[in-house]
Amino acid sequence: MPSFDAVGEYLEINQLEAVLSDAVAICVEEERPQPLAAIADMLYERAAALAVAWDYGQLTADVRGLIEREKCGPVFVQLAFADAATYSAALGGGGPNAALRFADRGEGAFPCNAFLAKRAVPLLEPIKAQYPNISRADLWAHAANVAIEALGGPSILSRFGRRDAATSADSVPSAAGRLPDDLASGAEASPSEHMADHLRVIFHRKGFTDREIVALCGRHTLGEYEPPNGAPGGGPWTEHPNRFDNSYYVELLSKKYEPSACGSAGVLLRSSDGSTIMLPTDHALLRDPKLRVYAEKYASDSKSFFADFAAAWEKLLELGCTRLAPHPASLTYASSCVVPCEWLELPLRTRRDHTHDTAVYGFGLPEPTQTLRLPACACLLVRAPARGKEGRDAMRAYFPTSDPGLQGTFELMVRRGSEPPDEVAAWLHELPIGSKVAFRHPALCLKEQYPFEGKERFNMLAGGMGLAPMYQILWKMLFIPADERKAVLIYHSRTTADILLRRELDEWARALPHRLTVVHVVGDAPDAAPPEGWKTTDTYVAESGEVDKAKLSKYAFAPSKETLCFICGPPALYTALCGPREERALRQGTVLDQLGYTSSMIAKL
């Protein structure tokens, strides 16, 4: 056991005494029933703050400068890969922890890591010394991301909070089953014969799909292959190893390669002119039909490669990690909204049923006193991991429906069982309370914005979930004291049970009858009969069928330069009233065109 003096010195150097004292004092003052859990949470918050307690812009500039001086970007990418790719769900453990820096045993002594321990690790140590609060594992990951972008690749958001290994004992015991065995043994005539199966065994254990495997192989567009333990016979994969592009796939598909001995380490493949190499694991992308289809796609479509690589690479660098967060200075914002343009994970706090097929989900904001501050007509993107086509992430835009003044949280209304199927909604419905959900605020979603200068009257034409942005606008318009403008909401639902926010709209129409008129249109066909008991009340007009020319002529504000029509709903609603949502202009021959409205009077949300 260390001496009392040594413990005291350690507490003082790491500023732990004050933190622990403050945590204990809070537990006593608030009479916390589980003090150890409370103290653990407080210490985590302190650790998370320290993990980003450094100058993001300056550190990033220092890394970029190092890359430019030493031409070391490719080895930083290889270092980050070797550190993170030890993770295996099947074998347990592994993941980014900078254990590779210990050369005595463990990951630092793996033959495939020998050159990284000698070349890449020492290059970053001066920067680590200059910024002591960043962990080495975080620094290695961020250096790789900086290198990828600096060499022409996609911009990848770095998230921080990884923990460094204390000693080599924190390494995984072996590379077998965790890292790709890139070389074939002996003098095999077809060294890539079984490598596709090998790649799948390695990467499926990490949670990657075939598409992600091929995308991650694209990291070989950078740098040179260094054989294990310094054996001769390596070389670059591409003719421009310091440029991040899709040339790895182009050359893999277009060049001829022959088996070539790599010292005593095994066999790789060398191009006919001897200038570049491919590993048997690379060549496997050609021999396996399911993998080849992605290699061909990336060879012809660099944009798809960049997008898929960025997503897979970000996933790789965070394997086995929890509670990672971006540096606040790295985030960009499209508006006043506290959710940035980059993905931000927020906790699912509540879920409650709203109608027979919709639910309201509540999410926590980063700070308990924050409000969402999302502009009217703006949306948030939600990401459902691996729920899209071919195992890709699914994404969907949602318009929050909660009170804009709500502190510490916001709400989304989500419909289940919609047509076409909404994979994000299905995923949300399965999540347990407390799960993290990734959001971002896309810059391009800001369309017509409050206060809608020059407009005095508003027609809100909505169907189904298209009510949500109308609800946002009404929150703004109806409850700002100086705003006396008027709105007509004409809202279509298939049945009365499908009407969303009915109670809330009733309350607003009752409180402000001179400013808000609500027309509920119910039916699943143009000539649908009114449901039994469906009649007009003091808060809404009851109609049946669909939103059509007759109803707009009867209830909507007439065309004028002071009138603005908002449209949001299913594709059929846009097609009939104004033309497809993707077309900004009003299409000729549509209902609104026939009624005399012009493109300047139309806002497709």
TrEMBL record:
UniProt keyword annotations, A-Z: Oxidoreductase, Peroxidase
Keyword set includes RNA-binding: no
Plant heme peroxidase family profile domain residues: 134-345
FAD-binding FR-type domain: residues covered: 341-449
GO process terms (BP): cellular response to oxidative stress; hydrogen peroxide catabolic process; response to reactive oxygen species
Span list, region Disordered: 170-191
UniProt organism field: Chrysochromulina tobinii
MF annotations from Gene Ontology: heme binding; peroxidase activity
Protein name as it appears in the record: Ascorbate peroxidase
Matching InterPro entries: Cbr1-like_FAD-bd_dom, Ccp1-like, FAD-bd_FR_type, FNR_nucleotide-bd, Haem_peroxidase, Haem_peroxidase_sf, OxRdtase_FAD/NAD-bd, Riboflavin_synthase-like_b-brl
Homology family: Belongs to the peroxidase family.
Lineage of the organism: Eukaryota, Haptista, Haptophyta, Prymnesiophyceae, Prymnesiales
